[in-house]
Amino acid sequence: MVSELRVLAWHCEYFRYRPTKKALKDVPDENVGEWVRLDNVLVALITIESEDDEFVAECAIEEITRMRNEVGADRVLLYPYAHLSPDLAQPRLAMRLLEKMYRRLRSYNVEAHLAPFGYYKEFEAHVKGHPLAERFRSISREETAREYRAGLRKSYIIITPSGEEVSPSEDALKKFGKDFGALVRKEALGVALPEMKHEMIRYLRRFGFEWEARSDHGHQRLSPYAALIFDLVAEYARSVCRRVNVPIYEVRGTAFFNMGDRAVREHAELYGDRLYKIRTDKGVFVLRYAACHQQFSMLADWSISYKNMPFGVFEIADSYRYEQSGEVELSFRLRRFWMPDLHVIVADEDEAWEMLFRIHNIIMDEACKLGQTYELLVNVASPEHYDRCKNRIVKLAKSLGRPILVAIYSPGLPYYWTINIEYHIIDYLGRPREIGTVQIDVGNAERFGITYVDADGSRKHPVIIHTAIIGTIERYIYMLFDSAMKRMRAGKKPMLPFWASPIQVRVIPVDESAMGYSREIVNSLSSLRVRVDIDDTNRTLSRKILDAEKEWVPYVVIVGKKEVEARNVTVRIRSSGEQRTMRLEELVEILKREQDGYPWRDITIPRELSRRIHIVV
Questions:
Q1: Could you give the count of Cα atoms lying within 13 Å of 309 in the half-sphere of its Cβ?
Q2: Strands 404-409 and 375-380, how do they pair?
Q3: Statement: residue 55 has pLDDT above 80
Q4: Nearest-angstrom CA–CA distance, 270 and 162
Q5: Which residues, including other chains, have CB under 8 Å from residue 570's CB and lie 6 or more apart?
Q6: DSSP H stretches of helix in 459-514
Q7: How far apart are CA 473 and CA 334, in angstroms?
Q8: pLDDT at 198 exceeding the cut of 90
Q9: pLDDT tens digits, one per residue of 90-131
Q10: Residue 14, beta-bridge partner list
């Protein structure tokens, strides 16, 4: 249920009330029985619900002030009224928010009055008869944040490697590449994207990535192959973070954070309208949308010296974002996903920019390994920040040798970051797809109470770099499959990288006489940390090879009478399409080179295909 602060507003010729007796024990004493009369007054009868907070109260005051100005009331009365909702806030919270609203109105030089909270009251009203005299408003955090952001303007500009500023337009895009043009059309010109085709979905499902129909929208389930790919990518994310070359502290924590906590609430308010909430007997909790809450909570408790910096904190965090149900996309846009979240702690913004360039180079290199190229969208928090960092953005464009799209936000919304770089591949359908990110955060250290002791003994707030270098686990997997789709469109066989292939080698005995030697090969390769299985089913050779092709197995070893006698192997190599006969030792050397530097896990299903359950997808 979405919590809303509810306001029934009357523009009254006069309104008078008197407290009759206490409805709650622990409220201040008031003059019971004494009438209060107010003329030409806007009366705001207010119900505060359980999840309401200061942000919603501030938005309610803005709305009440606007209504007062529209009707020309001389004064405003805030009147606690518990009858507009069954989902009431605790009395202490309701009193605190009403007091805040009262003080805020007074700060606007509005004659404001606050009727007593926690009393039975008698009232008499003469409501005016004009069209705006009676109005009802419900004010929710999500809707207000959405409306605020919708009204928030941002301008776009293209920065070339030479430092030229170019306004985005179809004519301007003629001198830039097709992929960069796709990003500009989507972000700056608002051109709609093509929808995801069943072609990609079919391959994701073939490897076991599916929606869970018994869960909420946007929640996946992973069959054995998919689960194995997921684990490999998660471990790879760990290894990539070590390339940043700072000490890494890996942590693990909870996904539930209390919205009653000021820091958590303020961070959520800045994040926006995709919050996934849950109510417990302790209050309303937000499900984390990255590892920020947990890592920042820990960092606030650590004793940090300038000598410790820079350092990183890392967690592969289960994360939740309440995406629109019609926008969820298999392995790309999910309501529950996993973020390999790295926060690098540095002393100041200059060090932050040095670290950003180091991380940027790693992000670009990771895309290159998959045959992909990133197009950059650089979000800047304000025109002032753009003026401060333009030279660094030009440096970024020079390092790429390509233009960058920059979004400059108008002043108004206090984002926690000053700069937020999005790394987009252009997928096989020509759509920009954001994968990696890096941000410079200058606000959350103070918000969460994170400090370090500087060389002079003073306490300071550090600057925080946010990054998921390879993107979320699911989006990196999407990029793996997108690379496979691009191979197929180039006339090559689609495949995953060797290290991420669920089965790296499949041994296929031609007949029963080759079974013994085939098992020797399987045992030898598995002992050398190769994911190998054996097709020992009673089927034709052509059918066995076809099934290996459907599973994108990089190396298929065929063993017949000739191979048994010569003690060698015939290998079908998927990447090149060639078939070669070689010694087993030669194959082992090839596999070692392919695997070098990447994580490895053994298969968690039977090696023998004859023993496997047929999983329908």
A1: 26
A2: parallel
A3: no
A4: 35
A5: 557, 558, 559, 560, 562, 563, 579, 580, 581
A6: 473-489
A7: 11
A8: no
A9: 898 899 999 989 998 988 788 999 999 999 999 999 999 888
A10: 39, 126
Are the beta carbons of 102 and 48 closer than 8 angstroms?
no
Q: Could you give the CA distance from residue 80 to residue 94 in angstroms, rounded to a whole number?
A: 9
- Beta strand 505-509 pairing with 555-559: parallel
The pLDDT assigned to 152 comes to: 55
Domain-located, residue 268: no
The residues facing 558 across adjacent strands are 508, 570
Task: Judge whether 207 and 573 are in contact, CB under 8 Å.
Answer: no
pLDDT at 181 over 60: yes
Residue 598 and residue 455 share a domain: no
Domain region containing 25: 5-149
Residue 562 lies in a domain: yes
User: Of 78, 80, 112, 84, which Cα lies nearest the Cα of 94?
Assistant: 80
Residues 165, 570: Cα–Cα separation, whole Å: 58
Centroid of chain to Cα 199: 25
**Cβ density class 192-207: b for 16+ within 10 Å, e for less:** eeeebeeebbebbbeb
Q: How far is CA 488 from CA 492, 497, 505, in A?
A: 5, 14, 21
Q: Which of 214, 180, 84, 75 is nearest to 137 (CA)?
A: 84
Phi/psi of residue 354, each to 5°? -60, -45
Q: In what order do the strands lie in the sheet with 336-346?
A: 165-166, 154-159, 404-409, 375-380, 417-426, 432-441, 463-468, 336-346, 311-320, 248-250
Give 28's strand partners. Answer: none
Residue 262 domain-assigned? no
Residue 19 and residue 38: Cα distance in Å, rounded? 15
Q: For residues 504 and 373, state if they share a domain.
A: no
Residues 473 and 415 occupy one common structural domain: yes
**Which tens digit of pLDDT belongs to each residue from 215-263?**
999 999 999 999 999 999 999 999 999 999 999 999 999 999 998 888 8
Average pLDDT on 470-488 reads: 97
Answer whether residue 33 is part of any domain: yes
Distance CA 531, CA 552 (A): 13
- Which tokens hold the place of 163? 């430092």
The phi, psi pair for 163, rounded to 5°, reads 95, 5
Residues 503 and 477 in one domain: no
- 346 CB burial (10 A radius; 0-12, 13-18, 19+): buried
pLDDT in tens, 152-169: 568 999 999 999 999 999
| Integer Cα distance of 600 and 554 in angstroms | 15
598, amino acid identity: Y
